[in-house]
Specification:
With about 180 residues, the chain is an all-alpha fold. The chain is built from five helices and no strands.
Length: about 180
């Protein structure tokens, strides 16, 4: 039977998993659209001498951003963030837990700073009304995909902060991710 204190965290995590699944779906859809658009543009450009107007800009300014930043939390859960464990693995357990907490907090702070900075960038783009050079498509929606992905990653990192002591933080897990 589950302890009462873990129930809110479990419910919260279920919601985060649903949101993460939706973000990952959008990321995968952006990847698929990018592959199709690039292929059709290349065929059209070289076989028909008629490139698709704006294909490069849409790929660069929208699809790549969605692919990378909306998939960040899934990459984190899968253990894809860089870990340098050579020195930390040789530390005594008590010191290692302290260092792991410090690294988790610093990682969270780093991504939070990136999220705040990218919100500022998105607001500047929104204020300036910047659009793609070949199409009249505004850039501000793409600029807000970055802080969305980063903020969601920060939330997952914050939830995992409680798991550092038990070794359950995904930042320090090695091998295959849990399902």
């Amino acid at each position: 039977m589950m302890q009462e204190s873990s129930l809110p965290l479990e419910r919260t995590e279920r919601w985060f998993l649903r949101i993460e699944s939706a973000l990952m779906f959008v990321s995968l859809a952006a990847t698929f659209v990018m592959m199709v658009l690039t292929t059709v543009d290349a065929v059209s450009r070289y076989a028909l001498n008629a490139p698709i107007t704006g294909a490069y800009e849409v790929t660069e300014k929208y699809l790549m951003i969605a692919m990378v930043f909306l998939g960040l939390s899934c990459a984190y859960r899968g253990g894809a963030l860089i870990r340098v464990t050579f020195a930390v693995n040789r530390l005594p357990d008590g010191i290692r837990v302290w260092v792991d907490h410090l690294v988790q907090v610093l990682t969270l702070a780093f991504f939070a700073l990136l999220a705040v900075a990218t919100v500022g960038q998105g607001l500047r783009v929104l204020e300036n009304g910047t659009a793609l050079s070949t199409l009249e498509v505004p850039l501000w929606p793409a600029n807000f995909l970055v802080p969305l992905g980063l903020a969601f990653l920060c939330a997952i990192l914050a939830i995992d902060l409680a798991r550092v002591r038990s070794g359950g933080s995904r930042l320090f897990q090695e091998g295959e991710p849990e399902s």
